[in-house]
Amino acid sequence: MMPAGAPASRMRRVAACAAALVSLMSVSAFAQEPVVEQWYAALATADRGKFESLLADDAKIRLIDLGVEQTKAEFVDSLDEWEAAMAGATIRHRIEKTAGAVTTVIACYHFPANDVLLRETFLVEAGLIRENIQVEIAESCEAY
Question: Domains in the chain, start-ordered, CATH in brackets?
């Protein structure tokens, strides 16, 4: 025979486990936000040192619309060109969603001659960006 209150006790344990799991998922999502914020701060200034510390050694940067895939080293080496392109430009971004280790961002790049709206997906593991995938949504930022 089960002791009185056993089913209620079991239900409390299940509820506690579920709450702990949701809490861990929220902490994981929260922990990714600073990494993503640092990415955009580093982009604005072409901060090579920051990218060296943000990107995993085996990181991949994929610019889908351009058909470009870069390693960490290739990406860091391309920052001279990026720095020139960013002269007079600004970036606005907002996190669209986070699911597990993946954070999706909508980013508006305001260049002096044009704007572009991108959806960027970050795979963040152990506090490092392992993958960044960029896809153009629109040739303007009106939908931002």
Answer: 6-138 (3.10.450.50)
